[in-house]
Design brief:
Elements (H helix, E strand, L loop, with lengths): L12 E7 L4 E7 L5 E5 L4 E3 L4 E3 L1 H12 L3 E6 L11 H8 L2 E5 L2 H11 L15 E3 L4 E4 L2 E7 L8 E5 L2 E5 L19 H11 L7 E4 L13 E3 H7 L9 H12 L8 H8 L23
Parallel strand pairs: 3-6, 6-7, 7-8, 12-13
Antiparallel strand pairs: 1-2, 2-3, 4-5, 9-10, 10-11, 11-12, 13-14
Helix pairs in contact: 4-6
The chain binds fe (ii) ion (FE2).
Fe (ii) ion binds next to loops.
Length: 294
């Protein structure tokens, strides 16, 4: 990470799109020096009871990009989300752009390929994505230099994306009063999550941090933007000198009490395929529900 020049003079314009059904925040990030933009963590809508997929949330982002006359260069997934479906291919088909995720997606594909009993036609090499990022990899959005930091712990493939003075933290961190995400999914690890959070909090104090989720703890309004300084001082799980041991103990006890996310089964099947819905033998979109596997 130290090889990567952080440029706090560069202030990309960040437009947030909140999805109330899954408490996810998706972003359109615009390069200040051109009309290039990136999408971070898009959402595809699903009505599980009906097995119906729709695109209202993605359409709002597409409308914004078109209205502003932006050209979409990247569709970034901070990780394989377990609580919402990605709309990456839907957006790519309409606006172009490359779909990127962390290279450790291969671990996630291997684990969940087994759980969903996917056949040999399901590739476990990340080839469904256009780009697999390694720790410290850089890329550009227009003239803006961006880079990815590998932040495992919540999942093995989690990455934080830094674009100018803005960092998109995925589920590595929540707002200061929300703390951190669970670390008990397959391949998750509370100690690793703590170490990853420390790396993120070693970015400059003034770095803007954008969350992937917010649940408005204590009834406060939904929020998604904070700073490294605020997280360091106030994060209820990792701020103000909380030790690794304290964090691991707390996180492990808390995770043991959490239910699985409502959309974990459809989300993983779709998101490990870069947002494509799997198909049955006849080519119809079809989701599985493995019994007693999670
Ligand atoms: Fe997540």
């Amino acid at each position: 990470m130290s090889d990567n020049p952080v440029n706090m003079e560069l202030h990309p314009q960040v437009e947030a799109f909140f999805d109330a059904a899954t408490n996810t925040i998706s972003y359109v990030v615009k390069d200040p020096g051109s009309n290039a933009c990136a999408v971070v963590d898009s959402v595809m809508d699903i009505d599980m009871a009906a097995g119906r997929i729709t695109y209202d949330h993605a359409d709002a982002m597409i409308a914004h990009i078109e209205h502003e006359g932006l050209s979409l260069e990247w569709i970034i997934e901070t990780h394989v989300h377990a609580d919402h479906l990605s709309a990456a291919p839907y957006i790519q088909e309409r606006l172009g752009g490359k779909i990127g995720i962390g290279e450790k997606i291969m671990i996630v594909q291997d684990v969940f390929g087994k759980i969903f009993n996917e056949g040999t036609e399901f590739q476990r090499d990340g080839s469904q994505f256009d780009r697999l990022f390694k720790d410290g990899d850089s890329y550009t959005v227009g003239s803006m230099q961006c880079f990815a930091i590998h932040t495992p712990g919540h999942t093995p493939a989690c990455m934080v994306h830094v674009m100018g003075d803005a960092a998109f933290v995925g589920d590595t961190l929540f707002m200061p009063d929300g703390g951190s995400a669970r670390a008990d999914f397959p391949g998750g690890d509370a100690g690793e999550l703590y170490d990853s959070i420390r790396r993120v909090l070693s970015l400059p104090d003034a770095m803007r941090l954008f969350m992937c989720h917010d649940y408005g703890p204590g009834g406060r309004d939904i929020a998604w933007e904070t700073t490294v300084a605020e997280e360091k001082a106030n994060n209820i799980h990792v701020g103000d000198g909380k030790t690794r041991e304290e964090f691991v103990r707390f996180r492990t006890e808390r995770d043991a009490q959490l239910n699985m996310p409502r959309l974990i089964l459809p989300s993983l099947q779709v998101n490990m395929r870069a947002g494509e819905v799997p198909r049955d033998r006849d080519g119809n979109p079809m989701l599985k529900l493995p019994v007693n596997r999670l």
